[in-house]
Amino acid sequence: MDIFRLEAGVVPLLISLPHDGSHIPDEIATRMHPTARRSPDTDWHVVRLYAPLAQALEASLLRPLASRYVVDLNRPADGQALYPGRRETGLVSTIGFDGQPLYLGADSEPDAAEIQRRVNDYWRPYHEALQQELARLRALHGRVVLWEGHSIRSMVPMLFDGRLPDLNLGTADGGSCSPALQRRLQAVLEGQETYGFVVNGRFKGGYITRHYGRPDEGVEAVQLEVAQCNYMDEASFAWDESKAAALRRTIEPLLRACLA
């Protein structure tokens, strides 16, 4: 199976886009509601947003092909909650961001054996590739930054109140990267006036950021969650090149700050 695409770079920066995929295999899709088969909670077009930047910087770029509805690559394989006490989707979720069921009925939902198969078939290969690329870049440069690129609709009542800030930087409350890197990134955000932002707000970084970010061992991890209205039409999922070009002009100095 073609599980992921990796474009290996030469600088100590790996851009991971774990929710970029939207493909749902037929054997799963036939058991889902028609609206769910469209995979509406995808981080739409993030590869289109980041690919030109990765190419220009000669950074590595890793992305899956399958939807987060198949298995969420940014969740721990044991299914533990990321935000205990809050309503959220899971490793193999049965609800979408609107709180509605994904599957046609309880008998259509995946059982424990199927969940484990999805972990083995999709989750593990992506994480193995992620680990290997981080190890390769760290061996070359002594340190590496893992940049987690995400996006989400600007308003998702099930997950947060009101409108999400445009740019949401997460470093696991400072635990996944060095204080120096967080200061550089925050300075970039403070130096622009186009987008509202927050650091370690509702989105502090998911499993990948928290698990792989080990600054004392030479691996720093940062997550950027972007409100989708800044580069696309949220209702139709249509790409907006003019908005995206403007957004890239803010993301690029953030990525360059990782290489400083």
| Number of individual domains | 1
Q: How do the SSEs run, as a string of H and E?
A: EEHHHEHEEHEHEH
Proportion of strand residues: 5-15%
* Oligomerization category of the chains in this entry: single chain
CATH architecture: 3-Layer(aba) Sandwich
Radius of gyration: 18 Å
Provide a descriptive summary of the structure in words.
The protein has 260 residues and is of the alpha/beta class. The protein has one domain (4-20, 44-68, 118-259): Zn-dependent exopeptidases (Aminopeptidase). The protein contains seven helices and seven strands. The chain has helices spanning 26-29, 34-37, 46-57, 112-141, 179-190, 207-212, 241-259, and strands at 4-7, 13-16, 60-64, 144-152, 167-170, 197-199, 219-227. Strands 1-3-2-4-7-5-6 form a seven-stranded mixed β-sheet, sandwiched between helices. α5 (179-190) runs antiparallel to α7. The longest helix has 30 residues, at 112-141. The radius of gyration is 18 Å and the shape is globular. The mean pLDDT is 96.
Keywords:
single chain; 260 residues; alpha/beta; Aminopeptidase; seven-stranded mixed β-sheet; 7 helices; 7 strands; globular
Topology, pairings included?
Elements: E1 4-7, E2 13-16, H1 26-29, H2 34-37, H3 46-57, E3 60-64, H4 112-141, E4 144-152, E5 167-170, H5 179-190, E6 197-199, H6 207-212, E7 219-227, H7 241-259
Parallel strand pairs: 2-3, 2-4, 4-7, 5-6
Antiparallel strand pairs: 1-3, 5-7
